[in-house]
Amino acid sequence: MSERRVLINLRGLLTPDPKQAWAVDRIPAAALALEGGRVTWLGAEADLPAAWADAPRVDGGGAWATPGFVDPHTHLLFGGNRSGEFNRRLHGVSYQQIAAEGGGIRETVRATRAASVAELVDLGEARLRAFRERGVVHLEAKTGYGLELEAESRLTAAYAELRRRGWSLDVTLLPAHDLAPEFGGDAEANARAVAEDWLPELVRRHPGVARFCDVFVETGVYSAEQGRRICQAGQALGLIPRIHADELSWTGGAELAAELRAASADHLMFCSAAGMKAMAAADVTPVLLPGTTLFLGMRDWAPARQMIEAGCRVALATDFNPGSCPCVDPLTILRLGCLQLRLTFEEAFTAMTLHAARSLRHPDLGHLHPGARADVLLWDVEELLELVYWVGEPYRPRFLPA
Ligand SMILES: [Zn+2]
Predict the structure, then answer these.
(1) Nearest to 261 by CA among 222, 301, 212
(2) Can you give the pLDDT at residue 1?
(3) Is 229 helix (H, G, I), strand (E, B) or coil?
């Protein structure tokens, strides 16, 4: 990894500029100088500095080079899948009916609680490989389908093992993903258990594994006040909050994220104008999840354009999960960003690279300026816009040889 080398013969290179909010560099006939697994220079191949004249060359084969995608919101680990339930919904059975029969998220919680750490690690590796093949070089991964201490602890242990095996991921503790069946709908008692017992114990058992904590603030789940206490308990343990906010109704989740200086507020289909302004002022990244809106058949897409106009640096993510978005494909999200959230290609791309990385506090990811990790994707297309334009084409990037 310490070797010096120069990536040449590129049709072009496109990268966000980490010093700016939405500017991208688009360099035709580009080259990239790499050393120690980092970018040290980028520019037109004709302008390559003399110091690099003797460095070994890597032939880009006429591809477009971009930074790898960063996915800042996934529920990577869960047991089972819910394809049967999905088909029943297509046949007209309501989600409420399925839930009343013990299906829905309860089914995933049962399967996740029954899985061993080794089984979870195997599931995780297969899914991480699927993300990687599609160009995701780093992702955020949440616990949350345990809904009780021991299962949440096994999920955290599985993430620790995946990191030990070299996968690039950030772990978020989300024991407050839903109300646990054991609490009989008592959100207050459940919130107290999360804040006072589960989060401290998870951090004590798995020191240094999780960087973030999260809570589902929603009507019928946790109130903004309960969310505040859960996030503050996480902050006292050194975790940075992210919040599932304003997904199905306005609950003040964006405003709460701003008040707590959370890293992100996620979903935000029902975000208020005041919430957008507050997020911009507090440097909270809105993480939008258009795959979930699509999969749930909802008509209210998150107001991405208004957020950008309010000064927010919007990010996009898959929300990979078994109930509302079983999708590991960044190109699907890129296309929805352009086609439904009305972002330009450059904005959607920046949202899935630079701003996604920013929401995870990684200044060396999501761009290809000097100092960036050399996670370069090579796309065999004439124009990068084709990645969005040819809807449904399963493009796969090439990677630099190790
Ligand atoms: Zn989620």
Answers:
(1) 212
(2) 47
(3) helix
Span from the CA of 402 to the centroid of ligand 1 (angstroms):
33
Mean pLDDT of 49-53: 95
Which CATH code for domain 69-359?
3.20.20.140
Half-sphere exposure of 281 (CA within 13 A, CB side): 12
How far, in Å, from the CA of 396 to the mean position of ligand 1?
25
Long-range CB contacts for residues 153-157, cutoff 8 Å, separation at least 24: 153/201, 153/202, 153/205, 153/206, 154/115, 154/116, 154/117, 154/120, 155/77, 155/112, 155/120, 156/202, 156/205, 156/206, 156/209, 156/210, 157/117, 157/206
Specify the fold of 4-68+367-399: Urease, subunit C; domain 1 (2.30.40)
Q: What is the pLDDT of residues 335-361, one digit of tens each?
A: 999 999 999 999 999 999 999 999 999
Q: Residue 280 C-alpha to ligand 1 middle, in angstroms?
A: 21
Boundaries of CATH 2.30.40.10 in the chain? 4-68+367-399
Considering the chain, tell me which residue range(s) the CATH 3.20.20.140 domain(s) occupy: 69-359
CA distance 329 to 4: 32
Q: How many angstroms is it from 291 CA to the middle of ligand 1?
A: 11
Decide if 76 contacts 141 (C-beta within 8 A): yes
Distance in Å, CA 393 to ligand 1 centroid? 26
Q: How far is the CA of 168 from the centre of ligand 1 (A)?
A: 19
CA of 266 to the centre of ligand 1 (A): 8
29 C-alpha to center of ligand 1: Å? 40
19 CA distance to ligand 1 middle (Å): 29
Question: Which tokens hold the place of 9?
Answer: 């013969």
The alpha carbon of 6 and the centre of ligand 1 are apart by a number of angstroms equal to 39
Distance 181 CA to ligand 1 centre (A): 19
pLDDT tens across 156-170, in order?
A: 999 999 999 999 999
